[in-house]
Amino acid sequence: MLKTWSLTRRNSPIGVDIGSRSVKLVQLSADRQRLIDAARWDLPEGEAEVGELRGARLTEALLAAREGRQFKGRDAVLCLGAHELFVQNLRVPKAPPGEFEQIVRQEASGRIPFPVAEAEIRFVDAADVRQGDLTRREVIVLACHQPVLAALLSAVEDAGLRPVAVDIEPAALLRCYAAQFRRDEDKQQRSIYVHVGAGNTVVVIAQGSDAVFIKYVEIGGRHFDEAVARHLKLDAEAAWSLRRHNGDRRADQQDPEVARGVGEAVRGVVERLTHEVSLCIRYHSVTFRGQPLARLVLGGGEATQSLLDALTAKLNLKCELGEPLRSYEPSRAPGRPSQWDVAAGLALRETA
Can you tell me the distance from the alpha carbon of 38 to that of 325, in angstroms, rounded to the nearest whole number? Predict the structure, then answer.
C-alpha cells in the first residue's frame, strides 16, 4: 500500500526515467499535491552504445535536463528497464517461505543470461495457478547484471545526483497508476498497462499495485520510425520528426495526407503490437481463470489516440490513455502527457 510522504520533507526525490531515446525527470511536493518540475532531454544518436561512452552521454543528458529547472535537492530514484532487466514468469512448487525462495532462485539460475554470482535477483510472488492436477505458484523473476547496475549508478552520481533507491520500470508504472486509480473498486479489479517506449513495450497485468504478469515486447517507437522511413523513403531522423510533430497536433490540425501516409506505413507494426498484447491477455485469462480485466491503460512516449483506437478495435476491453500527472497541480507538463508515467512512479517511491 502506498504511504504519504512525511510532511517534514519539502519534496519527493527526483524520479529519473532513463529510456533508450531520452531521460525524463519528475519531482513532486512532499504531500503529492503539486508538480515541482518535469523535464525531458533527448539522448544523442548512438546512445545505445554500452560502457563508458553511454555513461558519459547519460551524465551529460542528466546535467542538461536539470539546468535552469526548479528541481530541489539531489536525491534521486532511478529504475531498471528492458536493457538492464531479465524478466520471466515461472511456475514453481508451493513451499514454506525460506524454502520457496531457494526453489525460485534455483529455477532462475538456469535461465539468467549472465553468471548467477554477478546477478541481482528478485521475484514477485504472483498467485496460485493450476497445472494439471497440481497447484503451483506463479512467480515473476527479475534479474540484473551487477556491472550494468554499477555503471548506471556511476553515471547518475557523476551528474551530481544521489541515488537513494533503484526501482524497476514495471513497479514504477504500477505505483503511478495505483495513485491514479485508488478507489476501493479499482483496487479489487485487474488492469493491463501497456507502456510503449522508443525501443520496446512493457506489458504489466496487475491487481491494484500487485503485478501478476510482466513481459517486454521488442516493438517500440524505433520500429514505427523504420516503417515510415521505408514507406515514405526518408531517413530515420526525418521519419521520427514527421511522425512526432504531425501526431502531436490535434486531429483537426493534422495534415490529412501526412496522417494517411504515416498510418499506412505503421499499420503492420501496430498490428504486431496489438497481437502481442492480445497474447498477453490470453495468457492471463488461461492462467488466472475467473479474473477478468477491467481496463487497459496505454502509456509511454509512443502512446497516441490512433494506437489506442487500434487496441480498442482489437480487444474486447475498455481502453484509455494514461494521464499520470492529472492529479497534481499544475497537471500539465511538456509534450505527450502519457510519457511521464514511469518518472512519476519513481518520484512516488517512498525512501528512508
Answer: 10
